[in-house]
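Data availability excerpt. The first of two example chains:
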Amino acid sequence: MPETDTVFSSKIKYNGIFSFKDFYKFCYDWLVEETGLEMVEDSYNEKISGDVKEIRIKWSGKRKITDYFRFDIKVEFIILGLKNVEISQGGAKVKTNQGSVEMTVKGILVSDYNGKFDKNWYAKWFRGVYEKWIISSRVVEFTDKIASDCDEFLSQAKAYLDLEGKK
């Protein structure tokens, strides 16, 4: 059975004006292009009451690092009070959205994702020795890289929302 280690977990919150459609596309494209993850939308739930929407989205992504390690990511969006608004931008009226966004990101290092060391107790014991003594520097390197990628993604998403709100 693969060993999973959550090496990054954080969230951002934003309340203001932004284009939901553009933000969604920006986040998806950034994860695919900048980190090489294969992203999947696990769930998309939308509740509408009047002219206000509540949207909950869950994504998961995977990227093979080596034959032994894999980078997994879990992203969850909670958008509350989303409504259409019109703003004046450069003298022209532009249709956009207003609401609050909470985005949670978890970066996970998965080792032995093919289960090569699950054959018997000796193989499981050897996996522990292998990770702790033989490739410990690689584990630290991959952990740091995953945490860095996740942190950069959250920073880019926050910057995007901040810039969109100031237009």
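And the second chain:
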Amino acid sequence: MPPHFSIPLNLPHAGKIAVRIHDIIEVRGNHDGREYEDAMALVKRMMILLDPCLRSGENPGTEECGRMADEAAFFGRALVEAIIDAEITSDRIGQCIRNYFECLELGEEGAEISLRAGENPKSLQRPY
């Protein structure tokens, strides 16, 4: 089991991280003149899903919370695959992916999947 942070479910902050990922991918696309359609479509779905939590600053009720967290994790996993396919992995995207999964109470998975998204395994941001 890789070292990881365990934090309580925080869907509003996961929404903020989705916005950060969107911005990073958008700048990357503008910089090299390519569009990352699959990655952008997935991150936009993450943002739409989590927007009510981001606006309210709170997690929804217990039942809705679990459903949203599961769906957010599904989109996050798919996003990592799209990032790999588009060859846009980077340390910053990987860090955001790890943080996103931590907010979904999936810190261990985040510590693993973030490396696939490009996070430097020796990053000072990673738990040790």
